[in-house]
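Our consortium's second objective concerns turning raw sequence data into structural hypotheses that experimental partners can test. To show how far this objective has progressed, the report includes one record in full. It was chosen at random from the queue rather than selected for favorable results. The single chain below, 358 residues long, was entered without modification.
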Amino acid sequence: MQFNSIQSSLLHFIRFLCSQAVLIAHLIVLLGWEYRTLISMASYAVMLFFILSGLLITNSLLERRTSDPRYGFSAFFRDRFIRIYPPFLAALILTFTLDIVAFEHTEQSYSLKQYFYDLIVNILQLQEFPPAVFLNEHLMIEFFRFRCLGSNIPLWTIGIEWWIYMFFGFAMFYVIRSTRIRAWQIGVLCCLALPPLYYLFVSARMENGITLYWFLGVLIAHAMRKETHTKNSAASLLGLIILAGGLTLFPKIGYTNSAILFALGLTLFLNESKKTNEQYPRLKFISSTLAGYSYSLYLIHYPIIIFIITLFPAEPDANYFFQIYLSVNIIAFVFAHLFEKNSQKLKQLYENYRPHSN
């Protein structure tokens, strides 16, 4: 389903709000402030990111498959790689550079060899990879201590999402839609299923079941594809009200209940606003601009905050907070235009020239 103007704008605004919530919560933590409700925004925003990811990836896959029956896993892999890796690799290099400069400035010892090792681990999306976590924690094998690169702790979510993408895409193209399932396909699927299954039962730095939230987005994508013939403004408004409750009530009713409320409100709104033909170019431009650097902001905000606090320490008051907050947003905006926007151009070049085959 192609999102119309109002639907796209809503999804963009949600992405923007979630990315800002993560930034604000992490900045509060690193400044040492004790605002538990605000700090808890980070974990809940990550949950919503997973729901949106499941929704958008599923919708995109189904749309591509409908428009091009020859669209397969290899093309799906290239799409995900082009979208994720250019800014991700740039974020790794930036993290590496900022950390080393900070260590040199403070004259702290560090292991360059360990940084290069962790760099390779993160490039391969093996940070906190389940088999490695088990071997390191239970058998005490230090070689399998696969960590996020340096100070960039939030990268743990990127690895989990990457393996969910690969599992979902492989399952869709080689298992669910296949008339004949081969032994090697089952073997690959079982390997790809390790991270999604593991984080179904393990907390992953937050509540258990982060995988479920991603697949909740898959359910929303399928639910909104049902046919509707009329526009119901009252139902759309109700969906927005429920959605607003899902966004804000997590301190009172908990993450899980709020996420379900969010999913219900989003599904209702997307279904009932399908027939809205009005165009809102200014609203879409503003929302897409705000959301356009959300991925980059998530990738680089944490090491930048640590770098600023380390090299330019000051009294952690409101003025210092807003200086860092604005600085990180500006840097992320520029970073997105350098790497995230160019990755979209790379994807467009690929779309123009890729052969119509797998």
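The partners drew two points from this record. Residues 318-353 form the longest helix (36 residues). The CA atoms of residues 285 and 292 lie 10 Å apart. Both points have been shared with the crystallography group to help prioritize constructs.
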